[in-house]
Amino acid sequence: MPQVNDYSIVSSAYIHIPFCRRRCFYCDFPVFVVGDRLRGENSGNISRYVEVLCQEIATAPVFSQPLQTIFFGGGTPSLLSTEQLAQILKILERRFGITAHAEMSMEVDPGTFDLDHITGYRDVGVNRVSLGVQALQAELLKVAGRSHSVEDIFAAVELIHQAKIPEFSIDLISGLPHQSLDQWQDSLSKAVAIAPTHISIYDLTIEPGTPFGRYYQPGDTPLPTDETTVKMYQLAQQILTSAGYEHYEISNYAKPGHQCQHNRVYWENRPYYGFGMGAASYLEGKRFTRPRTTKEYYQWVAAGCVIDCEVTPSEEILLETLMLGLRLAEGVNLTALTQKFGQQQLEVIYKCLNPYVEQGLVEITKGRLRLSDPQGFLFSNVVLADLFSNLS
């Protein structure tokens, strides 16, 4: 895949599936709650959404090579029936083409699929699944508002192994209310024992409008202290790298050769399609986010999917390139930055970051600019805020 942004090449698509059994207490994503009994096979709401989604895809402008990565996110895409997933993939293939060895990722939640579902997903092309574990303690799953149990997690892992999905990731959240350092270490140890090819570690963010946003303010008990969350981050880095995972991005670890290629499209600030309620796309230097409710999204598709947005200014593209690229362990390519944005901008960047180089938070080596691991990653917000103030 290209390593620098080329607005003429689009080879990735994100598909938003907004349905969940319930809304987790930390979630501010655009989702539609269907309860515990409904899924794609018996939900008129899901069937209707898939039809509208396919209509949007079928009329989308084409800027692409055949798709090399496809990511079904949510929400809970594993509430789709196999037939509905196949229907969406058929439209994508017809509109854009899909390469023979495309990475096809799908978020799945424990307790939302059986062996027939997961093998069906595999048979229609899914070769990478991301299991929404979040915690491996029953009390923390309850605190977070998750709909699954610890037993559901291990049952889901067994189903994924039985289906022989080649790429398997799990998600964990640190900094949950009442979460202790011992519980976090236990989750990490159990995650390593499960042995997925990829592990994503997310620090809890308190979002306005969510149940957590109403219950807590950052720094409130029973949220872990900042000191504890720093220790959680450091502990994850120690345990996972010792177990053979590469810390290739601030929140992501992978066995060698198993990085998520779709997410690298975002971090390298390359263009991509986005489809579905609330999904964002980045095409021809323009970013656009679709309506966040089903009613507004359906009306938008019925009206012809009109996209009206301005080209992102060069200064903003530079900031985005730095903000996203510095999330990666290898950082950003200085030669590519100079070619795209000029030597003068690079001198401003060097001057701004020099104090952080002296502190060991930023490294400039082998033609790349990067944050150190783990300290630079821990203070990334400070470094990026300084860059923004100097470059804006």
Task: Describe the overall structure.
The structure is a single chain. The protein folds into two domains: 10-267, tm_1862 like domain (pyruvate-formate lyase- activating enzyme, Alpha-Beta Horseshoe), CATH 3.80.30; 314-391, Arc Repressor Mutant, subunit A (Orthogonal Bundle). The protein contains 15 helices and 16 strands. It has helices at 44-58, 82-96, 115-123, 138-144, 150-163, 181-194, 211-215, 226-242, 261-267, 294-302, 314-325, 334-341, 343-358, 375-378, 380-391; strands spanning 10-17, 19-20, 32-33, 64-74, 98-108, 128-134, 167-174, 198-203, 246-249, 252-254, 273-275, 280-283, 286-289, 332-333, 362-365, 368-371. The strands form four sheets. A nine-stranded mixed beta sheet has the order 9-10-8-7-6-5-4-1-11, with helices on both faces. Strands 14-16-15 form a three-stranded antiparallel beta sheet. Mean pLDDT is 94; it is low at 1-5.
Kindly list the characteristics that best describe this protein:
392 residues, alpha/beta, pyruvate-formate lyase- activating enzyme, Arc Repressor Mutant, subunit A, 2 domains, nine-stranded mixed β-sheet, 15 helices, 16 strands
Task: Quote the distance from N terminus to C terminus.
Answer: 30 Å
Please count the helical segments. Answer: 15
CATH class of the largest domain: Alpha Beta
Radius of gyration: 21 Å
Shape: globular
Average pLDDT number: 94
What's the number of domains?
2
CATH topology of the largest domain: pyruvate-formate lyase- activating enzyme
The beta-strand count equals 16
Structural class: alpha/beta
The CATH homologous superfamily name of the largest domain equals tm_1862 like domain
Determine the strand fraction and express it as a percent band.
15-25%
Helical amount: 40-55%
